């Protein structure tokens, strides 16, 4: 698998004007995005995700380090730009324009014209499922439709790389599903997608690789499977009194959830499964089920960020 | 040649996009409507003048002069307001609504983007000026049954005055995050541009014997020679007093192309500053 | 650009600003040349019309130098007779627009550079007076003197609109009858917009007609001598001359607009100041510029009043060529033929009186009879009060020559009431006949004689002027009587 985006030692320092401290938005970021994958770029607000994306697009300039896109260092070159499509978060498009007019404008910026442009517009609209609304003005579009048009403008030049900032934020569940399907289809067609999102559940469903950023530094990076290893055990029991729960908690077994009157207990990773079962038996709990529990991306995210926060305060 | 065509294709499309968006702005339309109302109302201004002789109402040439002078002033004021408003808002608005990200992520250099925006602004300014001038032409033609050719020269010079203010306002807007500061800046530039002539007074009246005074005088003189002086375009109002039937006098004929070059030179300066600011602006 | 972008941009900026700066200075030179040209036009109009502002000595001196420097260039170009005596070729060249471009080229040239610099420095020092119309000067501080701010700058070029709004206020004051509040505002109007011709015209009308309507006639002994105007000014006359000065300023600022010349010549000099000589002077300039069709007719009337019958006749005949069967022209042609005949008969009579040789005397008398008959024929050919009155005049003169003064007086008395425009002329003739015929003068006639004597003097009049005028009055009476 070839690397389409690579950063080495990428840093961004915002110098303070007076005696205040400089802000390190990115600290020697080494990042790679491979061809044909969906890469989820995650991090809390202010971690440097948007900074990274903007640097990849040439909207802001690195203080140090290098960026290579498609093997080219000149990221402002036509070849690079021709192969990048970008969907910014919450972008606005003029209300009075029709869907196809927006695409026509962006297509023209790519140097497309005439029949070729019109064909491409139709293809892209078909791809994002907006053919029916192509002649409607944007002021008549729902949020989901605007987002799709936004994606369409990113796709107009049939780029190799798509950078999407919060592509599903604010969408209803059906729209989100549709968006996910579109993105997955694009990946299956060989496109590389770099998605920055807070919708971790969505991202987990479609991403191949993920990177978690905190205070400008990558905390974790890898495939989803690598990152989300099986960890905990869950034991489902009939019920438990507060006293029993307290005893279990002292031993490290914590209640996680209650479903249809039944209590789900979580057993820590470092506890032997049999030992956990014995403890429950001692408390005379009625066992319903025992199952392994894979950590979600959200849990990983929260844990990673929490650890990073602790490290930075000590 | 085709490289040049390719290069300017992007700016052209951006210019058209800017034009389409700009002409719909409510503030712009508001200014335009106001100016058209004033031009229209100038017809009735002359009713304030009750020129009577022998018991009846007499229409003197003052009526025509009133209309002409008010129309010229209206075009100047509102045209300038529209110019400043548009020049101040195109770039900051696009940065605010993130359209600039979608454009600059395309194979569009910042220079091309800026050129397109600036051209779009000029298209809007020209269209507004043309519309107000056309209405003025119609008003004069209906009133005096003559086609005021000189007005076209006046409009041309007015445009170049607007161009200078537009370029520097545009430059300020490239560094700003909202349109407010550039708008104020544009008004300030217009004010300063009209007061630059005072610097000549300062330099002429500085006392050479006193060091500080002489220094102030020299600085004032240098600034007077360097900064754009909008008073130089005042010929745009005086040209209307010339005899419309006669060819332009030699001194006017000579001033016009020089003023155009003057306007263009400062417009380029303003644009260069705009690009210099925008080139490495963190968006 | 890619390697050293900042340097490249700085260089481009520097070049652009440099070009702007150079252009700015070039424009300054052009504006200075234009200002010089406009000042020359104003000063040239002043010289051409002998308006002779004695306060504007610096202007006159500088203009003299400029005219001197350009004399040879223009003298050869202008047609024969176009340069009046005592005037420069430059002021003659400035009259129409024909030589404007050439004058401008000369004004811009290195040849006139020293004078141009002199003009600019005098302008900045506020020493020049004919600078009201200077758009360039308007942005310099020199007008109001050192240390002051040019009022024009405050309007950012909207001074014409300001002038219009000030004029609306003038109009309001006029309709409210507040005439004295109008006057400073009218002057403000033209200060803001020196090309506001109607402000000059209507302003002069207000000053000369409306303000003075409320003022009484001032007897000569109470009038004040004006060195500037070489006239005795009473209450009314003061305002007439204010209006005259106002219009003269208007001419300097708008030397190619016939209307101001017309108003000055006709409305002021002819109607109010009863000065046909100056009326003719300004109306003559009015017709040399693009004008309305009735303007030359006013000139011809003034020529007639000024005793220039032949020129007036020429004018009316010219008018007839352009407007065939124009009734008024036909009438005036006849009238002037009659007046010319009458004058010839008078001249013949004078010549006969002066001649010592009897045959010469007889010849002159024959001419006298011939021209008198000619005049009579002409008046008989016209049937209107004017011609009837003139016939009666001829008869009266004839009676007087025969010693029948009483009859002469009664004929003239009838005639002067039949033709009102001849009332003064015939009344003077009546007095003449009564004095010669030793007939008693009426009270009003005696008052008229006293007024005539009084009119030669007023308060503050230099003795030399008084003596001169007295001598002139006596000589005139000697001829008449």
Notes on the structure:
The complex is a heterotrimer of chains A (314), B (283) and C (481). Chain A has helices at residues 49-56, 78-82, 99-109, 114-128, 143-155, 173-188, 200-206, 224-227, 242-251, 273-282, 297-313, and strands spanning 3-14, 23-34, 38-42, 64-69, 84-87, 161-165, 192-196, 209-214, 217-223, 230-237, 254-259, 262-267, 287-294. Chain A has 314 residues and is of the alpha/beta class. Chain A is globular and about 80 Å long. Chain B has one domain (2-279). Chain B is 78% helix and 1% strand. Chain B has a two-stranded antiparallel ribbon with strand order 1-2. In chain B, helix 1 crosses helix 5 (110-144), helix 6 packs parallel to helix 10 and helix 7 crosses helix 8. Chain B starts with a helix and ends with a helix. Residues 52-58 of chain B have low confidence and may be disordered. Chain C is mainly α. Chain C has helices at 5-48, 57-75, 89-93, 100-108, 113-124, 159-176, 179-192, 197-213, 235-253, 258-272, 276-288, 295-305, 309-322, 327-354, 358-381, 385-401, 405-418, 423-436, 443-454, 463-480; strands at residues 224-226, 231-233. In chain C, strands 1-2 form a two-stranded antiparallel sheet. Chain C is elongated and about 115 Å long. The model of chain C is unreliable at 136-154 (pLDDT under 50). Chain A binds chain B through residues 54, 57-61, 76, 78, 81-82, 84-86, 88-94, 96-97, 105-106, 108-111, 150, 153-154, 157, 163, and chain B through 6, 9-10, 13-14, 17, 20-21, 24, 97-99, 101-109, 280, 282-283.
TL;DR of this structure?
The complex is a heterotrimer of chains A (314), B (283) and C (481). Chain A is of the alpha/beta class and 314 residues long.
List keywords for this structure.
heterotrimer, A: 314 residues, alpha/beta, 4-stranded antiparallel β-sheet, B: 283 residues, mainly alpha, globular
Structural topology:
The complex is a heterotrimer of chains A (314), B (283) and C (481).
Chain A (H helix, E strand, L loop, with lengths): L2 E12 L8 E12 L3 E5 L6 H8 L7 E6 L8 H5 L1 E4 L11 H11 L4 H15 L14 H13 L5 E5 L7 H16 L3 E5 L3 H7 L2 E6 L2 E7 H4 L2 E8 L4 H10 L2 E6 L2 E6 L5 H10 L4 E8 L2 H17 L1
Parallel strand pairs in A: 3-7, 3-8, 5-6, 6-7
Antiparallel strand pairs in A: 1-2, 1-4, 8-9, 10-12, 10-13, 11-12
Helix pairs in contact in A: 3-4, 4-5
Chain B lengths: L1 H21 L3 H20 L6 E2 L2 E2 L3 H36 L2 H6 L5 H35 L4 H27 L4 H26 L5 H16 L8 H4 L11 H30 L4
Antiparallel strand pairs in B: 1-2
Helix pairs in contact in B: 1-5, 2-3, 2-5, 3-5, 3-6, 3-7, 5-6, 5-10, 6-7, 6-10, 7-8
Chain C lengths: L4 H44 L8 H19 L13 H5 L6 H9 L4 H12 L34 H18 L2 H14 L4 H17 L10 E3 L4 E3 L1 H19 L4 H15 L3 H13 L6 H11 L3 H14 L4 H28 L3 H24 L3 H17 L3 H14 L4 H14 L6 H12 L8 H18 L1
Antiparallel strand pairs in C: 1-2
Helix pairs in contact in C: 1-2, 1-4, 1-9, 2-5, 6-7, 7-8, 8-9, 8-10, 9-10, 10-11, 11-12, 12-13, 13-14, 14-15, 15-16, 16-17, 17-18
């Amino acid at each position: 698998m070839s690397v389409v985006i690579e950063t080495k030692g990428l840093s961004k320092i915002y110098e303070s004007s007076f005696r205040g401290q400089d802000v390190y938005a990115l600290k020697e970021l080494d990042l790679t995005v491979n061809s044909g994958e969906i890469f989820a770029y995650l991090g809390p607000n202010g971690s440097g995700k948007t900074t990274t994306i903007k640097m990849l697009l040439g909207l802001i300039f690195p203080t140090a380090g290098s960026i290579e896109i498609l093997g080219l260092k000149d990221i402002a070159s036509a070849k690079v730009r021709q192969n990048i499509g970008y969907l910014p978060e919450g972008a606005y498009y003029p209300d009075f324009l029709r869907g196809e007019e927006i695409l026509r404008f962006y297509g023209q910026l790519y140097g497309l014209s005439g029949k070729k442009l019109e064909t491409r517009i139709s293809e892209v609209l078909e791809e994002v499922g907006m053919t029916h609304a192509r002649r409607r003005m944007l002021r008549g579009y729902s949020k989901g439709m605007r987002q799709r048009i936004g994606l369409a403008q990113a796709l107009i030049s049939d780029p190799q790389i798509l950078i999407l900032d919060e592509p599903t934020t604010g969408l209803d569940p059906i729209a989100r599903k549709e968006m996910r399907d579109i993105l997955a289809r694009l990946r299956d067609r060989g496109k590389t997608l770099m998605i920055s999102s807070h919708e971790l559940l969505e991202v987990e469903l479609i991403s191949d690789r993920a990177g978690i950023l905190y205070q400008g530094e990558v905390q974790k990076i890898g495939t989803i499977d690598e990152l989300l290893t099986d960890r905990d055990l869950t034991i489902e029991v009939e019920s438990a009194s507060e006293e029993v729960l307290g005893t279990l908690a002292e031993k490290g077994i914590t209640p996680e959830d209650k479903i249809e009157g039944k209590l789900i207990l979580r057993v820590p990773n470092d506890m032997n499964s049999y030992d956990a079962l014995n403890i429950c038996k001692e408390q005379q709990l009625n066992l319903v089920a025992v199952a392994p529990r894979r950590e979600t991306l959200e849990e990983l995210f929260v844990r990673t960020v929490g650890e990073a926060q602790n490290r930075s305060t000590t | 040649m085709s490289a040049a065509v390719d290069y300017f294709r992007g700016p052209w499309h951006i210019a058209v996009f800017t034009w389409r968006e700009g002409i719909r702005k409510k503030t712009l339309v508001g200014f335009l409507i106001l100016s058209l109302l004033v031009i229209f109302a100038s017809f009735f201004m002359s009713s304030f003048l009750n020129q009577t002789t022998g018991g009846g109402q007499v229409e003197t040439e003052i009526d025509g002069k009133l209309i002409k002078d008010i129309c010229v002033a209206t075009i100047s004021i509102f045209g300038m307001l529209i110019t400043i408003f548009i020049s101040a808002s195109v770039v900051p608005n696009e940065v605010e609504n993130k359209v600039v990200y979608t454009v600059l992520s395309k194979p569009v250099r910042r220079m091309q983007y800026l050129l397109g925006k600036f051209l779009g602004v000029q298209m809007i300014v020209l269209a507004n000026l043309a519309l107000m001038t056309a209405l003025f032409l119609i008003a004069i033609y209906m009133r005096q049954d003559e086609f005021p050719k000189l007005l076209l020269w006046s409009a041309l010079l007015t445009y170049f005055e607007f161009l200078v203010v537009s370029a520097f306002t545009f430059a300020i807007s490239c560094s700003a995050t909202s349109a407010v500061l550039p708008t104020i800046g544009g008004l300030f530039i217009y004010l300063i541009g009209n007061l630059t002539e005072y610097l000549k007074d300062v330099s002429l009246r500085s006392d050479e014997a006193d060091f500080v005074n002489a220094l102030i005088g020299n600085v004032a003189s240098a600034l007077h020679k360097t900064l754009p002086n909008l008073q130089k375009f005042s010929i745009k109002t005086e040209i209307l007093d010339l005899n419309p039937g006669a060819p332009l006098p030699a001194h006017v004929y000579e001033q016009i192309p020089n003023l155009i070059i003057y306007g263009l030179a400062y417009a380029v300066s303003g644009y260069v500053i705009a690009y210099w600011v925008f080139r490495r602006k963190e968006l | 650009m890619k390697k050293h972008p900042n340097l490249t941009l700085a260089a481009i900026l520097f070049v652009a600003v440099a070009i702007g700066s150079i252009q700015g200075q070039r424009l300054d030179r052009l504006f200075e040349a234009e200002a010089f040209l406009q000042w020359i036009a104003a000063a040239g109009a002043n010289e051409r019309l002998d308006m002779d502002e004695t306060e504007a000595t610096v202007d006159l001196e500088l203009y003299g130098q400029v005219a001197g420097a350009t004399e040879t260039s223009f003298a050869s170009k202008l047609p024969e007779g176009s340069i009046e005596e005592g005037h420069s070729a430059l002021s003659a060249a400035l009259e129409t627009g024909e030589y404007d471009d050439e004058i401008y080229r000369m004004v811009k040239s290195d040849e006139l550079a020293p004078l141009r610099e002199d003009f600019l420095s005098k302008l900045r020092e506020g020493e020049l007076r004919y600078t009201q119309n200077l758009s360039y000067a308007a942005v310099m501080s020199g007008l109001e003197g050192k240390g002051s701010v040019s009022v024009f700058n405050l309007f950012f070029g909207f001074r014409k609109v300001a002038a219009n709004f000030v004029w609306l206020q003038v109009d309001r004051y006029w309709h409210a009858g507040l005439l004295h509040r109008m006057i400073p505002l009218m002057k403000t109007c033209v200060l803001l917009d020196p090309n506001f011709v109607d402000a000059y015209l209507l302003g002069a009308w207000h000053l000369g007609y409306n303000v003075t309507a409320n003022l009484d006639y001032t007897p000569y002994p109470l009038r004040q001598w004006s060195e500037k105007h070489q006239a005795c000014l009473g209450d009314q006359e003061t305002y007439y001359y204010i209006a005259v000065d106002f219009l003269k300023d208007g001419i300097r600022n708008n030397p190619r607009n016939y209307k101001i010349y017309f108003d000055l010549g006709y409305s002021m000099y002819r109607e109010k100041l009863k000065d046909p000589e100056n009326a003719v002077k300004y109306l003559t300039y009015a017709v040399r510029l693009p004008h309305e069709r009735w303007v030359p007719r006013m000139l011809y009337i003034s020529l007639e009043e000024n005793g220039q019958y032949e020129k007036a006749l020429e004018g009316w005949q010219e008018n007839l060529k352009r407007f065939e069967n124009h009734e008024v022209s036909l009438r005036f042609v006849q009238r002037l033929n009659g007046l010319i005949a009458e004058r010839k008969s008078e001249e013949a009579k004078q010549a006969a009186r002066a001649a010592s040789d009897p045959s010469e005397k007889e010849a002159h008398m024959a001419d006298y009879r011939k021209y008198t008959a000619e005049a009579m024929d002409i008046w008989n050919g016209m049937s209107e009060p004017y011609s009837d009155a003139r016939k009666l005049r001829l008869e009266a003169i004839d009676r007087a020559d025969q010693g029948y003064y009483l009859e002469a007086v009664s004929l003239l008395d009838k005639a002067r009431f039949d033709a009102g425009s001849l009332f003064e002329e015939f009344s003077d003739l009546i007095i003449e006949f009564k004095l010669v015929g030793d007939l008693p003068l009426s009270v009003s006639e005696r008052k008229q004689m006293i007024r005539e004597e009084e009119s030669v003097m007023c308060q503050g009049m230099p003795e030399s002027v008084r003596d001169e005028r007295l001598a002139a009055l006596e000589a005139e009476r000697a001829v008449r009587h």
